[in-house]
């Protein structure tokens, strides 16, 4: 078992799983029918990606845990997702801003993983990046539309960016797992994604007439299993059926 590769796979899978669960909570509650359907489709895309990453993680671990076991029977401290994806949905503008900041990073990291030295990782990334390019186009378009909308929508989007900005740097901080995966060609170096991410985000915020905060985010811990209280609430909903009725099937 390659423990560094396993950790990296869990990070990718957990990001997708947690954000998919967050977006699914909007099903039936979106501000318009078209938005409701579109956001649900993004959630399904991310769930599909989570399944691929976690299936591969289970194989790498070699302990007989499949995607379901990893999703439903790990405690919060065993999850490796970024803190930003577990932040509350809030109002729709908060959800859009969270999605946009994540999509911009997700697109770049998947592009790097598409040339991974690990053929299975490259295969998953090549499939996923096609979906995530659409995710980014959609969330960027909403940022621009809402930022340039009414004074109220502009103010709400500016506040949403500022609320989430403290969490928008964790993905560029490199630890032993990131460094090992980068040195072996498994994954791109985490800090190398910062400049292209910032340029892409700044370009969209400029078009949206929104200001980019002038500081670097400081919240971190998700990649090593230190989470906010919000993840516990989310996992309670996600894992309830399997924890209560192990092995239950629809």
Features:
single chain; 250 residues; mainly alpha; Ferritin; 64% helix; globular
Major sheet size, sense and barrel closure: none
State the fourth-level CATH superfamily.
Ferritin, core subunit, four-helix bundle
Unreliable segments of 5+ consecutive residues: none
CATH class: Mainly Alpha
Estimated structural class: mainly alpha
Listing every helix as H and every strand as E from the N terminus to the C terminus, the arrangement reads HHHHHHHHH
The total number of structural domains is: 1
Beta strand % = under 5%
Helix content: 55-70%
CATH architecture: Up-down Bundle
Principal-axes shape call: globular
Radius of gyration: 18 Å
**CATH topology assignment:** Ferritin
Walkthrough of the structure:
The longest helix has 29 residues, at 33-61. The protein has 250 residues and is an all-alpha fold. The chain has one domain: Ferritin, core subunit, four-helix bundle (Ferritin, Up-down Bundle). It contains 9 helices and no strands.
């Amino acid at each position: 078992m390659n423990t560094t590769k396993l950790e990296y796979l869990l990070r990718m899978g957990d990001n997708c799983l947690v954000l998919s669960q967050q977006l699914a909570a909007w099903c039936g509650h979106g501000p318009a029918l078209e938005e409701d359907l579109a956001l649900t489709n993004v959630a399904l895309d991310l769930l599909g990606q989570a399944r691929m990453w976690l299936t591969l993680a289970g194989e790498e671990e070699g302990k007989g845990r499949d995607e379901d076991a990893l999703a439903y029977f790990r405690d919060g401290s065993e999850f490796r997702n970024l803190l930003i994806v577990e932040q509350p949905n809030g109002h729709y503008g908060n959800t859009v801003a969270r999605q946009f900041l994540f999509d911009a990073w997700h697109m770049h990291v998947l592009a790097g993983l598409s040339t991974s030295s690990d053929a299975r990782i490259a295969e998953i990334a090549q499939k996923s990046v096609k979906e995530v390019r659409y995710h980014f186009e959609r969330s960027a378009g909403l940022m621009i539309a809402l930022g340039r909308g009414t004074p109220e929508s502009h103010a709400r989007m500016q506040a949403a960016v500022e609320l989430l900005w403290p969490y928008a740097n964790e993905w560029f901080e490199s630890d032993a797992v990131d460094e090992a995966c980068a040195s072996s060609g498994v994954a791109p170096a985490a800090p190398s994604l910062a400049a292209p991410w910032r340029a892409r985000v700044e370009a969209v915020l400029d078009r949206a007439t929104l200001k980019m905060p002038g500081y670097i985010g400081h919240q971190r811990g998700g990649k090593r299993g230190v989470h906010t209280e919000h993840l516990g609430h989310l996992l309670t909903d996600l894992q309830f059926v399997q924890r209560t009725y192990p092995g239950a099937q629809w």
